[in-house]
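Title: Prediction job returns without error message
Component: structure pipeline
Severity: low
Priority: P3
Assignee: unassigned

Description:
Job completed but the reporter wants confirmation the result is attached to the right record. Sequence as submitted:
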Amino acid sequence: MIENNGHRLAFHVTKGHGPTIVLDAGGGEDSSYWKGMVRKLHAATGAKVITYDRAGLGESEVVPGPWEVGSAVSDLKTGLRKLGVTRDVILVSHSQAGEIATYLAKENPKLVSGAVLVDASLPPLYTDEVIARLVAANQPAVDAAKKDPSKPKNRQLISTAESYIPMHKAYHQVSWPDTVPATAIVSEKTPFAGSPEDAQRWRDAAATFVGKGPHRTLVTAKGSSHDIPKDRPALVLKEIKKMRAAQGQPRH
C-alpha cells in the first residue's frame, strides 16, 4: 500500500530484471484484469511486472469528486517512485489507461522507455463532435449507474462523466513525445461494436496517432473485441516482448 495525496493505493510487484513492465487496466477495472497476463509475461521476459489499483478500485481507497487524469498520473508516478522505479518503464495501457499513459509519457519521457497501448483512448479521437456523441451515448449508462453508486465500476463511471467534456477537450491537444516508442494495438470490433461509424473513428484515431510521430507501430487485433487482453492475450504478450527487446537499440 502506497500513500499519495492523502489516499492509499495497492501496488502488486512481481520481482524481475531489466525494464519494468507496468500493466494499467481500463475504466472500471482493477489489477485483477491482468491476472492471467502477469505470470505469462514474467515467465517470458523475466522482467519486473507491476500492476496496481487506481483510486476507488480494487484495494485502493476512494477519492471523492470528478475523476482527474492528473491525479491518476500522480498516483502512478508516486507509486513507481516509492517502489524505486525511476526509469526504463514500459507501459501497457488498456482503454482509459491510455490517457494516463499519454500524460505520464509527455511529462516524464525519461521515465517511460516505451508503451504498448492496447485499444487505448488516444487524443486524435476527441474532436468536439465526437465528445458530444460519446456524452450522449454514455448518458443512459451513467443514469443507470447513479441508481447504485456504491459499486466501484458505477462510481468510476459517474466520476468520469462529471469531468468528461473539459478533460477530453484538453486531451485532444496533448501530444505523445517523439522520443518514446509506442505500439498501438487496435481491436477489430473496438468499444463501439454496435456503431460502425464510431468504430471507424476509433480505428482512424489509432492510425492518426501512429502517423503523427516516429517510433510508432499500428497493430490490428483481428476478430477481437475491445478486451484484447482477454481475447488475444498471445498478441499482447508478443508486442510487449518486442517492445522490451527493442529497449537499448539505437533509434533512427
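Comment from assignee: result matches the submitted record. The chain is about 45% helix and 15% strand.
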